[in-house]
Amino acid sequence: MLGRFVRASTRERVLELGAGCGVISIMIASIYRPREVVAVEIQHDLAEMIARNAAINELESVRAICADLRQKKIAGVEPASFDLVIANPPYRATSSGRENPDPGRRLARGESGATLDDFVRAARRYARHGARVGFVFTARRAAELIATMRAKKLEPKRIRFVHPRIGMPASVMMIEARVGGGIEASVEPPLILYDRPGIYTSEARALLSSH
Q1: What is the rounded distance in angstroms from the CA atom of residue 7 to the CA atom of residue 37?
Q2: Residue 127: pLDDT band with limits 50, 70, 90
Q3: CA distance 186 to 27
Q4: How far apart are CA 42 and CA 122, in angstroms?
Q5: Can you point out the beta strands (E) in 46-110?
Q6: Among 114, 136, 191, 208, which is least packed by CB within 10 angstroms?
Q7: Is the CB of residue 194 less than 8 Å from the CB of residue 201?
């Protein structure tokens, strides 16, 4: 969903923080063909997977870097040099819910590693003035995300909530902020994922297709 929500032009540089296996970076590189996509991932095996995925898909614009986004300096990632920064931060706050027994999954899904504040701080560090910052996050922490972004001078410009079905509360939010932007924001129509259990809506199918 995030890969379709954000947009990039061929002249732009894109940075993904906490890229996992690189699905979003690969998708953005394939769809929009930006000048460069840098995917930062702390887990070495996943960073290697990003590089392999890029090679398999012949996407020379994608560069994988194994690093902790909390570092103030990451080799090959210059501050204030990206036109678009994207992230899918862990949804669970520290000490909330059951811990996943798998260390890698625990790191990816919870804040045992980088917190929401760490992700927002890093996005602000690497986005140039006027750049866009796109996050997908749990709707339950929407107020926290917006407040954290605004505290770092990232002004929300586009917001879209994702609902499992009509009449159900939003489960996910997508947000695009701008570095140093104005205070007005556009709340886009909700995205409904399912017409009925197991059957995507036509819009969801179009967003999730490979074309």
Answers
A1: 13
A2: very high
A3: 25
A4: 14
A5: 62-66, 82-87
A6: 208
A7: yes
Q: Tell which residue, 11, 54, 10, has the closest CA to residue 33.
A: 10
Q: What is the pLDDT of residues 5-52, one digit of tens each?
A: 999 999 999 999 999 999 999 999 999 999 999 999 999 999 999 999
pLDDT tier, 70 (very low <50, low <70, confident <90, very high otherwise): very high
- Token code pair at residue 156: 């929300």
| Six token digits for residue 84 | 């678009």
- Largest Cα separation within the chain, whole Å, is 47
In this structure, what are the phi and psi dihedrals at residue 37, rounded to the nearest 5 degrees?
-125, 120
Q: Report the distance separating Cα 146 and Cα 142, nearest Å.
A: 6
What the block records as the tokens of 195 is 């017409």
Residue type present at position 4: R
What's the CA gap between 83 and 80, in Å, rounded? 9
Q: Are 128 and 77 in contact (CB under 8 A)?
A: no
C-alpha span between 191 and 166 (Å, rounded): 9
| Cα-based distances in Å from 156 to 31, 81, 143, 188 | 24, 20, 12, 12
The residue to which tokens 């986005």 are assigned: 127
Provide the β-strand partners of residue 36.
13
> 110 has which bridge partners?
92
Cα separation of 113 and 93, whole Å?
11
